[in-house]
Amino acid sequence: MEKIAFLGLGHMGAGMARQLLGTGHPLTVWNRTPAKAEPFVAEGATLAASPAEAVRDADVVITMLADPAALDAVADAVVPELRPGAYWVEMSTVGPDVVKELAARLGEGVTLVDAPVMGSTDKAATGRLGILAGGDVAGVERVLAHFGTVTRTGPLGSGAALKLVVNAAVIGGVALVAEAMVLADALGIDEDTARTTLANGPLGGVVGRAFAEDVHFDTSLAVKDADLATKAARLPVMDAVLEHFKRAAADPDVTHADIAKAVAHIRHSH
Question: Which of 88, 1, 80, 4 is nearest to 46 (CA)?
C-alpha cells in the first residue's frame, strides 16, 4: 500500500484525510496548526513536524491548501524532499497557471496531478466529492477514489481550470440569488414565498446553496476564486460578483463564514 502524506487539514482537508484512515495506507499528516492533526494521530496517522518531514518517504503527496501563497510556501519545503517515483496530487483551488508553475519546479521522476474537488464539507466527510483530475491520473486514481468519484479532465492543469469554471458558476449564482432577494424585499414579497418560488425554478440548486446550513465554503476563499476567474478571462458579471464578495469579506463576522453568510450580507447591505 502506498505511503501517503496529506498536507492541509482545514475544513475540507480534514474530512478528506479522514477517508484515508483505516484503508491500509500508512498516513502521515501535516497542518500549519498542529492541534488540528491530533484526532488523526489518535486514529493511527503519523504527525510530521514540517512539510519536508511529511513527504520524505511518501509515495503519494496530497496537498489541500488555502491559496496559491500557501501552496508556494509548502512547495519551497517539499520540492527538494520528493523522491523519484512519487506522485504529488494538488487538490487546492489555485488555477491552472499555478499548477503549471509548480510542475516546472519538480525534479525528474516526480509526477504532478491536479485534482481539485467539487462539493463542500458534508461530501468531504462522507467520501462523496467529485474529483476533477488532470494529468497522468492512472497511478493515483485508486487513492483518489477514497474521496469520491474521479473524472479525468485531460492534460495537467485541466482539472484546476475546470474547477475555476465550476466555482465561478456557483459563486456567481449565489450572488444572483442574493440580488433576487434584494429585489423581492424591495417589492414587498414575503421571504418564504420568494425563496420557495426561486427554489422551484431553474436556479433551484443555487438557491439551496445560498441558504445552506452545516456546510462550509469560506467567504474569503470565494473572493480568492472569483479573483482567479476574473484574471483568466474578461468576465464583467464576475467582476461585479467579486466586488459583492469583497465587501462581504471585509466584515470580520463574514470573512471566514460560509458563503451563505455572505448572501445575507449582500442582501441586508442594500
Answer: 4
